[in-house]
Amino acid sequence: MAKVQDDIDRELLPLFLEEADELYPQIGNALQAWRDQPADAMCGRKLQRALHTFKGSARMAGALRVGELIHRMEELVTTTESKRSPSFRDELQQQFDYIGKQMNFLRADFSSESAVIPDQETSEEKIPFSSIGKRLNRIVKQTGKELGKKANLELNGTDIELDRSLLERVTAPFEHLLRNAIAHGLESPQQRESLGKPPVGDIRLTLRRENTEAVFEFTDDGAGLDVDGLRRRAVEMNLLPPGSGASDLQIMQLIFTPGLSTAAEITPISGRGVGMDVVRSDIAALGGRIAVLSRRGEGTCFIIRLPLAPACALEAGAE
Asked: Is the separation of the CB atoms in 251 and 231 below 8 Å?
């Protein structure tokens, strides 16, 4: 932990602490459920999802030490069963408790700074999407810094107002998409220059209204999806039979499948096949849907459609 230093954003920290009040108990419940049913793979999957979201939220606020602790717990969760020690779940519990202690330190530090006051506009029912613009830009900056890549985030149509509860719940999946765009989509500056592209990648988020829906388009000018790699991985996972005649468009949608990843290695940002599964689940919980389009060497576009009516979104998200 000595090499990991916090880079706290005092405006975003209260958002993280608010999310942590919900996520930390979720992780505790998922951990207990897995202890009670160790043979249930779904319990482990739920724990992994919650940790992945919690980690991203911590990094967004610059709580990098807590983010690293969550990352280590996430790595332990993904340890193959044959390599797990007899005290495997006790180790998980110890890491979880330690994360809780570090969260208490963060809360204490935050409480001692009276100048940090949540923006009054968050109490309004409708707020512009642009209110989370700084948060999204920080995600791009932080992720790019960690991966040695450069990217500009362009936001369009963000003056459109959304119900606050909808905006709060959709922020996490948007953060996942931004991290994925940099980790999987954009090439390194050196690779981009060799391909005749500007060294700094472009990521665009465009928002528009269509009847009773809000439509979000995330686009990047990166490498595009590796459709052949996805097809091979799908066959390996028995999601497709060998020689399947599935179209490229159908293959692209498989990136939302739990556990499917073509990443060559696991990093603190990605590689576990969890992120896009979480994104689709979160969007579906809001009554929305997501699709992906891509062209090799030119980039990828995610299209998200969400109902604008607050009642619809909240009702669809109820468990």
From this structure: yes
> End-to-end CA distance of the chain, in Å?
37
pLDDT digits (tens, 9 = 90+) for 193-217: 999 999 999 999 999 999 999 999 9
The amino acid at residue 193 is E
**145 is written with which tokens?**
């810094």
Helices (H) and strands (E) in the chain, counts: 11, 7
C-alpha–C-alpha distance, residues 253 and 259, integer Å: 14
| E-state strands within the chain | 126-128, 151-156, 161-163, 201-210, 213-220, 289-295, 299-307
List the one residue out of 36, 27, 38, 42 whose CA is nearest residue 96: 27
* Alpha-helical segments (H) within 112-247: 133-147, 164-180, 189-194, 227-236
Nearest to 179 by CA among 281, 298, 60, 54: 60
Q: To 10 degrees, what angle do helices 13-36 and 41-61 make? A: 160
CA 238, CA 259: separation in Å to the nearest integer? 12
Question: Which domains are present in the chain?
Answer: 13-111 (1.20.120.160), 123-317 (3.30.565.10)
Dihedral sign for Cα atoms in the order 52, 58, 61, 66: negative
Which pLDDT tens digit goes with each residue over 41-84? 888 888 988 898 899 889 888 899 999 999 999 888 888 777 78
**In whole angstroms, how far apart are CA 268 and each of 56, 112, 188?**
10, 31, 17
- Where does the pLDDT of residue 272 fall: very low under 50, low under 70, confident under 90, or very high at 90 and above? very low
